[in-house]
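Me: I'm a chemist; would you kindly supply a protein sequence with its structure tokens?

Assistant:
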Amino acid sequence: MSTDPIRPARFIFDHYDPNLAINSASDLPGLPPGGATGNKLGNSLTAQGDHSGARPYLERALAIREEVLGSDHPDTANSLNSLGFLLHAQGDLAGARLYLERALAIREKVLGPKHPDTARSFNNLGALLQAQDDLAGARLYYERALAIVETVLGPDHLDTAQTLNNLGLLLQAQGDPVEAHRYYERALAIKDRVLGPDHPAVATTLSNLAFLLQARGDYAEARPYLERALAIWEKRLGPEHPDVALMLNNLGSLLDSLGDYAGARPYYKRALAIWEKRLGPGHPHTQIARQNLAALPRRRPFLINLIRHMLTTI
């Protein structure tokens, strides 16, 4: 029986927050509209899990910004970053890396090596390398990001919490669950304090803590974290969001591991239905849910770590 967890990367990316005001130079009077507007719309669709709908907006925004602002403008880097996040979410890691590396090069050149946006690019590339199983390379990026954000933004900033989350995930992958748990708890305390207990970013770290416990076989301790995360995501994102399906799959896997196959089945079925509709039948997450459902009760399930590698949005 397979007991190895599968952890396709799922990130909180360096990607524009859809709630931010539109203030890019590409939307100023006298310049063609659509740069910041298109990026904002594309990011909003990406956040909703509508990846195919997001891509045309993001590609148009990038084309406008490159034409109007130039290839080395910070807003151009933001568009590159948004497209990198989208491709990462779609599982195209090689394509995502090209965009993310271009974004980082611009930020280092224009903003400097110690700017918070540069740190966000380090986080994004760390998450990407981790998804490609380059753990040593990922750690270098995460540690550079943490050094910047703790110094420039402070130990209680959300960017610090995001980087702590990512380092926790990395340490877990490297077989150091004790240190991973410590980083997750620090990240959770910051998010709870700054964002409140019902924010989706809180759910991200709850799910990471649950995955850590579940991987150690502490199923009873993991279950409340999973259930709290699911409740947050269903409330904030709606019942058919891909992130909700991630939690459904992991709750199914927990019950599956406990031998409660009847309890696991409806969670797997809901996850599969959501992913088939929102991500398509060929997406790795969809395939995992299909395998888990088809294999009941013959083997241990595949787990999906809801990593939300903290990629940022700017």
In short: Strands lie at 11-12, 309-310. Confidence is low (pLDDT under 50) at residues 1-33, 310-314. Residues 177-195 form the longest helix (19 residues). Residues 128 and 281 are 23 Å apart (CA to CA).
